[in-house]
Amino acid sequence: MSIDFYAILAHDTWPTTIAVEKCLANQHFPVLIKRFPVFAPAKVVTNGALVTVDGKDAYLEGELYPASLAPADVADINERIGNAGGTFRIAPNDIVISMRTRTPAEARAATYTIASLIICFDAYGFEPQGNTHGRGHFAKSLVAGAETLKGL
């Protein structure tokens, strides 16, 4: 079973790897980045993120893309957010990153990473399995969930 996480950022706010590392450190999240996807405005980037969480490597499989390149995915996410009571909608020029996790360590790393994108770069987060979404309150719930996975 896998759990997916998404973060949506305005088109001009995709952070550098160094900026994400700094955010994780400033939040005291136990994640170190080894490789983080670099946004490419004309394609879907599929190399995911390689991180270390609690001293263990974790690969966060996923995609990074401009919303305009995946209209069906964007329509599905927008519909699900709307059905869950949210008013946020992904715009065609927004940037979407997904992270797919299969282990507790991967889920822990992804939740901290998505939370950092929300906290430091004003991303909008979405977790489709629970239809949970948002910004500040959602980031706090991700962090709380990550804490429960420690040591699993």
Question: Can you walk me through this structure?
Answer:
- The chain has 152 residues and is α+β, with helices and mostly antiparallel strands.
- The protein has one domain.
- It has four helices and eight strands; from the N terminus they run βαββββαβαββα.
- The chain has helices at residues 17-26, 71-83, 104-121, 136-148, and strands at 3-9, 31-35, 49-53, 56-60, 64-66, 95-101, 124-127, 132-134.
- Helix 3 packs antiparallel against helix 4 (136-148).
- It starts with a strand and ends with a helix.
Entry keywords:
5-stranded antiparallel β-sheet; 152 residues; alpha+beta; 3-stranded antiparallel β-sheet; 8 strands
Characterize this entry briefly.
Helices cover 36% and strands 26% of the residues. It has 4 helices and 8 strands.
The domain count comes to 1
Q: Termini separation (Å)? A: 16 Å
**Radius of gyration from CA coordinates:** 14 Å
Quick one: overall form? globular
- Poorly predicted runs of 5 or more residues: none
How many runs of DSSP E, i.e. beta strands?
Answer: 8
Number of helices: 4
Q: How would a crystallographer describe the biggest sheet? A: 5 strands, antiparallel
Mean pLDDT, to the nearest integer, reads 92
Query: Which strands sit side by side, in order, in the main sheet?
Result: 5-6-1-7-8
Give the topology string: H per helix, E per strand: EHEEEEHEHEEH
Helix content: 25-40%
Oligomer: single chain
What percent of residues are in strands?
25-35%
